[in-house]
C-alpha cells in the first residue's frame, strides 16, 4: 500500500477529521448562501439607487 493511501485511510479514520470535514461543508454552504443573497440584494440596491438618482 502506498504511503498516500495509508495517510488517506488514517485521515478518514480519525474522528477529528470527520468533524473538520463537516464544519468545512457547513461553512461552504453558508458562504454560498451569502454570495447568492448578496448578489440578489445587490441588484435591488443598485436599481433603487439608480431610480433615486434619476428622480433627483
Largest sheet: none
From the N-terminal CA to the C-terminal CA, the straight-line distance is 72 Å
Low-confidence runs of at least 5 consecutive residues: none
Structural class of the secondary structure composition? Answer: mainly alpha
Element string (H = helix, E = strand):
HH
Q: Total number of β-strand segments?
A: 0
> What integer value in Å does the Rg equal?
22 Å
Q: If you average the pLDDT, what whole number results? A: 85
Query: How large a portion of the residues is in β-strands, by DSSP E?
Result: under 5%
Helix content: over 70%
Q: Number of helical segments?
A: 2
Q: Which overall shape is indicated by the principal axes computed on the Cα atoms?
A: rod-shaped
Q: What are the key terms here?
A:
single chain, 56 residues, mainly alpha, 2 helices, 93% helix, rod-shaped
Task: Describe this structure as you would to a colleague.
The protein has two helices and no strands. The protein is an all-alpha fold and 56 residues long. The longest helix is centred in the middle third of the chain and has 41 residues, at 15-55. The mean pLDDT is 85.
